[in-house]
Amino acid sequence: MRVLVTAGPTREYFDSVRFISNPSSGKMGYAVAAEAVRRGHQVVLVSGPVELSEPGGARVIHVVSAHEMLEAVTSEFEKCQAAVMTAAVCDYRPSRRLSHKLKKQNRSRSIQLQPTEDILAHLGKIKGDRVLIGFAIEDHEHHVNAEAKLRRKRCDAIVLNGLGNVGSDSAEVEILRADTGWSPPLSGTKGQIAAAVLDLLESLFAARR
Prior knowledge:
The chain is an alpha/beta fold and 209 residues long.
């Protein structure tokens, strides 16, 4: 199987040096990519800026912004049979990016934001018979929000993350499948969680065939 994986944050710049981002470490996506390679799959990893070594055997495409990630993912997805979207893509970007560093002044400044592209929803619209697994991080109404995301973005499954998983080497998640509903909570190292995600991916792919 040819598998597309996204990982890490995006950065949305408002001047030449400053940006909006989030604390995603990319560890989960890199673990998923490494596990998929270990199982013999062809892997394309589209990664935002992280401080991790590239997983051996995967083809890695480095991006910075949500728009760059969208372009890379759209180009690669048509050649894949499945995608695991772990990246924490910024929901907003500054409407205007200055070509120079904004100097500090003794007054308030405002930055107007506009929505970034919804990469997961875009793939959901064009997926056809491909398998699509998304990740969701929620800090309230966890199940309600994850269930809405699965329906809205036409995923086959959503992995529900907690805030405590960010940057950690371990995680506790719940998996929502479109066909069977919620799994019991699953905890372990991110390598162990990645193995569970690959089990799910292979099961969904086999069912399609």
